[in-house]
Design goal:
- This protein is an alpha/beta fold.
- The protein has 14 helices and 14 strands.
- The protein has helices spanning about 5, 10-15, 20-25, 45-60, 70-85, 100-110, 130-135, 155-160, 185-195, 255-265, 270-285, 285-310, 335-345, 370-390; strands at about 35, 95-100, 120-125, 140-145, 165-170, 200-205, 230-235, 245-250, 315, 320-325, 325, 345-350, 350, 365.
- It starts with a helix and ends with a helix.
- Bound molecules: 4'-deoxy-4'-aminopyridoxal-5'-phosphate (PMP).
- 4'-deoxy-4'-aminopyridoxal-5'-phosphate binds next to helix 6.
Length: about 400
């Protein structure tokens, strides 16, 4: 019998599988579950976007595109960055198309981080950043964002975390799982700390279109930050295009040049039909985005009020499509709370600890679901909470 542990890379073996996946796997074995676990829109990609891909296939456009993506799509991304954020990125050498926001993050981190480097990561955060850093042999320096700061990372916290080894600051806002956002003033404070260092900011802006009450501001808009920022973004969330696997990177040309090598050798190019769809999304998709955003906002308010009525405190998320309620007062760990809610009341949410240790006492609830589905989930959560209170 082969000893596979001797064959495999020890660093990879030491990495834990995603805590979100564990919940999906459990769910797949159960019936009658109302799940609020998935971080993807419940909308189908708008028809005109699907049609653009179908047409490209019908016309036989089934070739590889250039490594960086089609010139048409890079031009559309460039125009989008200008009209939305007043940011200038040249389609030729400052933008490239990736396989989802996921690849954009991966390539950015791999291009910057080497063994021994430090990367500052606000927590809780989406699950991919830490494993990628660890696979690079880099050290992750966590900053636990706090409820009392509306889960924002502050300039002071960043300043305190910087050492001579710091190579990268990750800014995952609007945030998955908390729904926290950063304002222009807060980004300006952070910029004051970062300017004058050699630290690269990886700004994950995949939820940029999904904010409620104020528009997203990119840190690259702040004076002196464009030249040290890599923006990772994608089409999945705003256009309901998760399955198309399409994202992009915007960054200064010297960084794009090196990132492109990783993309070139690992991926070659993103799916051609998806790129045709994305051109249509960027040219004619604004109304769809606005429709879905308004719908998420309705759901956000409904779920927030519903949770508060039941007696669950919850931070008012201003972005993405998640709520991050405080469940600590019920005397269970986050995992116990989520497990029992699932097994005893057939309602699935994700324990906060799936997004880092600082998630203890919290849970992530996705509201990318219909109001009917959310109402049903609230009934089940209410019954569970009542049981917990009665048993005290
Ligand atoms: N960043 C964040 C914060 C996310 O939540 C996700 C998906 N859940 C991604 C990146 C990856 O998105 P994509 O599907 O485009 O790879």
């Amino acid at each position: 019998m082969l000893d596979y542990s001797k064959m495999l890379n020890k660093t990879v073996c030491g990495i834990k599988p995603s805590g979100i996946r564990k919940f999906f796997d459990m769910l797949s074995t159960m019936d009658d579950v109302v799940a609020l676990t998935v971080g993807q829109p419940d909308f189908i990609t708008p028809w005109h976007i699907r049609e653009a891909a179908i047409e490209s296939i019908e016309k036989g456009k089934t070739y590889y595109t250039s490594n960086a993506g089609t010139p048409e799509l890079r031009l559309e991304i460039s125009k989008y960055m200008k009209r939305r954020f007043n940011l200038d990125y040249q389609p030729k050498d400052e933008i490239f198309v990736t396989v989802g926001g996921s690849e954009a993050i991966d390539v950015a981190m791999r291009a910057i981080l080497a063994p021994g480097d430090e990367v500052i990561l606000p927590q809780p955060a989406f699950v991919c950043y830490e494993p990628i850093a660890l696979m690079q042999g880099a050290k992750v320096v966590h900053i636990n964002t706090k409820l009392e700061n509306k889960f924002k990372v502050t300039a002071e916290e960043i300043k305190a975390a910087i050492t001579p080894k710091t190579k990268m600051l990750i800014l995952p806002f609007p945030n998955n799982p908390t729904g926290a956002i950063l304002t222009r003033e807060e980004l300006e404070d952070i910029a004051r700390v970062i300017k004058g260092t050699n630290i690269c900011v990886l700004s994950d802006e995949i939820y940029a279109e999904l904010t409620y009450g104020m528009n997203h501001v990119s840190i690259a808009e702040i004076d002196g930050m464009w030249e040290r920022t890599i923006i990772a973004s994608g089409f999945a969330k705003a256009y309901a295009m998760t399955g198309w696997r399409l994202g992009y990177v915007c960054a200064p040309a010297p960084l794009v040049k090196e990132m492109l090598k990783i993309h070139q050798y690992a991926i070659m190019c993103a799916s051609t039909a998806s790129q045709f769809a994305a051109v249509e999304a960027m040219q004619n998709g604004d109304e769809d985005v606005e429709y879905m955003r308004a719908e998420y906002n309705r759901r956000r308010v409904f779920l927030l009020e519903g949770l508060r009525k039941i007696g669950i405190e919850c931070f008012e998320a201003e972005g993405a499509f998640y709520l991050y309620p405080n469940i600590g007062k019920f005397g269970l760990t986050s995992e116990e709370f989520a497990d029992r809610l699932l097994y005893e009341h057939r309602c699935a949410i994700v324990p906060g600890t799936a997004f880092g240790e600082s998630g203890e006492g919290f849970a992530r609830i996705s509201y990318a679901y219909s109001l009917k589905h959310l109402a049903q989930a609230l009934e089940r959560i209410e019954a569970f909470v009542k049981k917990l209170k009665d048993n005290k």
